[in-house]
Structure formats: structure tokens, C-alpha cells
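Entry:
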Amino acid sequence: MELRVFTEPQQGATYDDLVTVAKEAEALGFGAFFRSDHYLGMGTEGLPGPSDAWITLAGIARETSTIRLGTLMTSATFRLPGPLAISVANVDQMSGGRVELGLGAGWFTQEHSAYGIPFPDAGERFDRLEEQLAIVTGLWSTPPGKRFTHEGAHYTVTDSPALPKPTQERIPVLVGGHGKRRTPELAARFADEFNMPFSSVEDTRVQFARSARPASGAVVSRARWPGPTRWSSASARTRRRSDAGRRRSAGRRTSCARTASPARPRRPSRRSGGTATSGPSGSTSRSSTSPTSTTSGSSPVT
């Protein structure tokens, strides 16, 4: 088991606060520093205001040397998949290969309204998440010199050079949430790790099991149901400080524990994952159109 630190700076934290917490977590031997990807405080003004997840992680990447870095979760509604793949690959390069990407469908309606971000219904958000996972992982895995193409209902990528490449051979991808069908299916197809956030032991056990096997009637485009190789959970841990600084301890500080499955051997072709958390993601809607992603000269990657 590994313990990691997860912060929610939308609750009130500056970049300097986040750097301080990340450095302290590294010095204390925590496995990773993760942050949420939100633009609006929850139950608070969140002063001095929100910060962009990947911009701050880029800065933290240059201020640390060993601790892994990532998001829990980046919302698929915030960014287009091509630019997201570029940004994450850049931060992976800046960190020397220490980045992990948690990607979710998005759930917090108010932050979308507050900053003019489109917020489609749950079914469309999950359809977009599916395509984003296919595009981001497809761009990263396309061999140098090859081209990547994706034709989907929401995104089209044509003849992309699929650059830049991350430092890691494979950036660990995290998917998590409470959804009974769509969430575990996407995790099984694309993720290195599945996370169950802020839930009971029994609910966590059941959801882990769902991500490790196909649901009845599930359509899986790979020859087998690979599933994630790591499972993790998140729980809130806070400590009052006499010093009013650190912006409420860099938002709500959360500890995350992750472990490899005791029943499934680790796949040597995949690197260790991280921990993930997301908001409510209970939709089980499915797109009627199956997107296709290809690398020129190869078979579809989804």
C-alpha cells in the first residue's frame, strides 16, 4: 500500500501554498501529490480564487524531483483532447516522467455556469469522456513517424503527428467514480488504476469488482477485458493549524491509499498508477455510435 496526498485548492489555496505542500509531501516520503481540477469553491468563496490544474502542476514539476504528480480528476468538459494530451505530455517532460492523468466526465454544474463552460447531459459527458480517453491515449501510444486519426461523434482528429511524446513510455491513466456500468467499463478499457472516492469499505469493494470484470451485455472492443492493475480509495484527512496561512491547508487535504490487486498480477507493460477521485458519475447511458481511433499503418486502438 502507498499513501499519497490529494488537495482541493478550489477551496482556497495559492500556487505558493500548493508548492509548499508538495515539497513537504515529498520530504516526508509520500508517493504522490495530486490536486483536484475545479474552478469554483464548494461551500466557500475559495479565496483567492481558482487555479488551473496543469499550469500549477507544471510549476510544481520544476520545484520537486521525486514525488509523482497528477489530477483527481481532470474534467473532460474543460479541455479539448488534443491540447490536453499535449499539456500533460509537456508536464511529464518537465517532471522527468512523474505525471499521472486522472480523467473524468465532470459533474459540478455551477462551475461550468460560472465560467461559461458548456455542460451537456450526463450521457453526452460520458460519451465525450470515452472519446477523450481514446484520443489522449491514442496520441501518446502512436509510434514516432506514424499518424493518428480518430473519427467520433464529438471529436475528429485527422492525420495527427501525435506529438509531443511524454517522457514515460506510458503515462498512467486513472478513472474513478460511483457509476455502476459506464464508469467501470471505461476504467477497464483505458485505465491503469481505478479509484473509489469517499465511500464505505463495502461500496468500495463492490465497485472495485465491477472494474475488474465486464458488466452483463457490455461491449468491449479489445480482445479481452484487461481492467486496471491498481485500485485506490480516497478519504478526507484535515488538521487545524494555528497559522491561518496555507489557505486552509491548501484546500481540503485528502489522503489516498492505493494498492495492486492481490488477485491479479501486475502487467509488466504498464507502469504504476496513482489515486483518483471524482464527483458523482452514476450515469449508465451509452453512445449509439462507437468512435474509431487509428494509427496509420495499424489496426484501431480502441
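The mean pLDDT is 81.
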